[in-house]
Amino acid sequence: MLVTGGAGFIGSHVAEELLKKGNKVVVLDDLSGGHIENVPKKAIFVKGSITNKKLVEELFKKYKFDYVYHLAAYAAEGLSHFIRKFNYENNLVGSINLINASINNDVKCFVFTSSIAVYGKNQLPMHEDMVPNPEDPYGISKYAIELDLKAAHEMFGLNYIIFRPHNVYGERQNIWDKYRNVIGIFIKRALASEPLTVFGDGSQTRAFTYIADVAPLVAHSPYKKSAYNNVFNVGAHQPYSVKELAEKVLELVRPDAGVVHLPPRNEVMHAHSDHAKLKKHFDYEPQFVLDDGLSRMVNWVRGIEKARPSKTFKVLDTDRNLPPIWREE
Predict the structure, then answer these.
(1) Reported pTM
(2) pLDDT tens-digit profile of 207-251?
(3) Active-site hit among 138, 160, 179, 240
(4) What is the spatial distance between Cα 259 and Cα 247, in angstroms, rounded to a whole number?
(5) Residue 329 in this model has a pLDDT that exceeds 60
(6) DSSP H or E stretch at residue 210
(7) Burial of 261 (0-12, 13-18, 19+ CB in 10 A)
(8) Tell me: the pLDDT tens digits for 72-97?
(9) 214/69 Cα distance (integer angstroms)
């Protein structure tokens, strides 16, 4: 089995779940957003990018994968407006290399983690039969891959399962990336006695999802044949405002750190999805409420001995309308 992005957050947890079941797992990751410490010890690790067509083809020929789990992506939704070239080369063109290799090597099922970013705004609750209308290049790239998988199935018979997770957090998340992962950013700042930075008034709402409610489902999904060639939302049911999230993090970590409000940014204000289809096929029900997941993540962050490097974009396609907090310091 191939897991792309297996040194990253969700990918490392999926790889771990697969290994628990005795599977042989190959992790492909260029370590641009993930860390070698995240790769499960029993996995075969290959350092490289999905944009390297030659490497991808060599891996498929060597290992003859039955299943491909594609989780490699740079998931900075807001920043994607300013890194269009990087976004499409890594998140779209790289994915096409994997799809082509899967077609040519008779992969049984291609599991892809998309995002609720494909829906855009004003579609609540988001459910799978809606017509996506993504607002940013990240969501556009994800939806393009979804469409390509559908076309690949119709033309070549490549089976796929697409998951649209939302606002996943937990152990191994990159808390050093200033562009993404609001929970990680909040926890890191609170531990450093720095105020939590909130765009706008904090009324934006998201349904924050603990990793243990996502990774096992993704890992085991190809064994559910009724799920083939379907799209599923996956995540927590209960939305919270960013303001409420900040209050919970402060209560857990350091109440006196406080909050500072930054100018609003261009983003979808409210996002939560319907999970009826997922429940029908997988009898799915999230097990972790936000307080439990936050507590677990805070304990993990407290145990990290040293900071890990994170990607910084020194050259952007444009810096027009770039939030000041994202400017190079």
Answers:
(1) 0.92
(2) 999 999 999 999 999 999 999 999 999 999 999 999 999 999 999
(3) 138
(4) 9
(5) no
(6) strand 209-210
(7) middle
(8) 988 778 888 999 999 999 999 999 99
(9) 13
Higher per-residue pLDDT: 314 or 145 = 145
Measured distance CA(170)–CA(188) in Å, rounded: 13
Contact 59, 28 (CB under 8 A): yes
Residue 74 bears catalytic tag = no
Tell me which DSSP letter residue 90 carries.
Answer: I
Model confidence at 286, in pLDDT bands (50, 70, 90)?
very high
Q: Are β-strands 44-47 and 168-169 bridged in parallel, bridged antiparallel, or unpaired?
A: unpaired
Please list the alpha-helical segments (H only) found in the chain: 9-20, 53-63, 84-88, 94-104, 137-156, 182-191, 215-220, 242-252, 276-282, 290-302
CA-CA distance, 174 to 51, in Å (whole number)? 22
313 exposure class (CB count in 10 Å sphere: 0-12, 13-18, 19+): middle
Burial of 40 (0-12, 13-18, 19+ CB in 10 A): buried
How far apart are the C-alpha atoms of 102 and 151, rounded to whole Å? 13
Structure tokens of 294? Answer: 């936050």
> How sure is the predictor about 328, in pLDDT bands with cuts at 50, 70 and 90?
low
Any idea what the Cα angle at residue 217 is, between residues 212 and 222, rounded to 5°? 155
